[in-house]
Amino acid sequence: xxxxLGLLALTDLLGRAAGLGALGAGSRHAxxxxxxxxxxxGPRTPDLLAVLAGHGAHATFFVTExxxxxxxEELRAxxxxxxxxxxxxxxxxxxxxxxxxxxxxxxxWHPRADQSGPHLYRPPYGGHSPLTRLLARxxxxxxxxxxxxxxxxxxxxxxxxxxxxxxRTRPGSVILLHDGPQVxxxxxxxxxTGLRERGLKPVTLNDLRPHRIGLREGWTRLRGSYGR
Length: 228
What we know:
The protein has 10 helices and 8 strands. The protein has helices at residues 2-18, 45-54, 65-70, 72-80, 100-108, 132-138, 158-168, 184-197, 205-208, 215-227; strands at residues 32-38, 60-63, 84-87, 119-121, 141-143, 148-149, 174-178, 201-203.
């Protein structure tokens, strides 16, 4: 029993915290970053779209199947505005809480009906089971993670969150935000202003072209996960 639990913990550690083999950051030599939003679409989506449009910026939205059913107009608005729309799963549950048949459905679902181009999947919480990577390969999905977290789910004010996020952002960074928290639109505006002042252009993940996380970067991510 202890060995099984240890294997589950190790799988999640290597897949989520280290991110080995998943898509991570882009080139550190190009002045571009990717803004990504999890959990939508929802009532906050129009506010986020307005902020992005005001700055002439594009982003990547990882959406869930229940949210897409509940907010079809907002989903259409994401597509119409030219943002990249990718999958966050059928359920917002950690992979370790899903039986294999449900995780298959979780990974296989995607909001884009077309089958052209890569289809990205960001597991809820970044969580991994021993089957996550295998299922992603079998369904033709690429796991996409992040290297900077905005922490917009905390109670901190937008200005403080923006300052902390910008301090961790480098060229090539993939920034994680959420489509839902009340603070996120204001935080997004502050981030976009700060990125412009630093000469960093926000682009979609497809335009950023993130690379797969290798051993060296994985070790750095792992240390950073417990060093902050």
